[in-house]
């Protein structure tokens, strides 16, 4: 499951992607529009700057903007930059691996094998989806 930090980062970068090429976007605009606490958003955008996704400028006319075009930033990039996990079970996580408490034999566990495949396929899908894509929200929500 994606962490709150990862979900906020994706929403903030999507907002900046929608405003790409229009100049700096104020933190308060992103926070209010995306319903993200300002203090947490400041930390997240600092991480996104270190990851090379965001540029900033201080001052009255300052703000945040994408460092690259939206089609060059994928959901997978953002998940990895926020140390998010795509694993549905702890033993399938790459960065936060933890053996399952009641596992008899991890090497023979078919559930783990299935969840590793799900994790890898999810990563492949997210690596193909960029911030530039306008997904049909209404159609997806109805499914």
UniProtKB/TrEMBL annotation:
Q: Which organism is it from?
A: Sphingomonas crocodyli
In Swiss-Prot or TrEMBL terms, this protein is called: Rrf2 family transcriptional regulator
Q: From what superkingdom does this record's organism come?
A: Bacteria
Name residues in a coiled coil.
none
Has keyword Nucleotide-binding? no
Keyword Hydrolase attached: no
SUPFAM superfamilies tied to this protein: Winged helix' DNA-binding domain (SSF46785)
Print the keywords alphabetically.
DNA-binding
Query: Gene Ontology cellular component?
Result: cytosol
Q: Where are the transmembrane segments?
A: none
GO MF terms listed in the record are:
DNA binding; DNA-binding transcription factor activity
Q: Which Gene3D superfamilies does this UniProt record tie to the protein?
A: Winged helix-like DNA-binding domain superfamily/Winged helix DNA-binding domain
InterPro entries, alphabetically? Tscrpt_reg_Rrf2, WH-like_DNA-bd_sf, WH_DNA-bd_sf
Q: Which NCBIfam families match?
A: rrf2_super
């Amino acid at each position: 499951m994606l962490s709150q930090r990862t979900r906020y980062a994706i929403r903030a970068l999507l907002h900046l992607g929608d405003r790409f090429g229009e100049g700096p976007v104020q933190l308060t605009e992103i926070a209010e529009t995306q319903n993200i606490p300002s203090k947490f958003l400041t930390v997240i955008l600092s991480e996104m700057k270190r990851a090379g996704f965001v540029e900033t400028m201080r001052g009255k006319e300052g703000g945040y903007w994408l460092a690259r075009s939206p089609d060059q930033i994928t959901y997978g990039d953002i998940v990895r930059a926020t140390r998010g996990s795509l694993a549905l079970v702890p033993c399938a996580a790459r960065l936060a691996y933890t053996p399952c408490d009641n596992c008899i034999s991890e090497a023979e566990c078919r559930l783990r094998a299935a969840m590793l495949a799900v994790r890898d396929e999810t990563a492949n899908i997210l690596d193909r989806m960029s911030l530039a894509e306008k997904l049909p929200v209404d159609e997806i929500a109805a499914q």
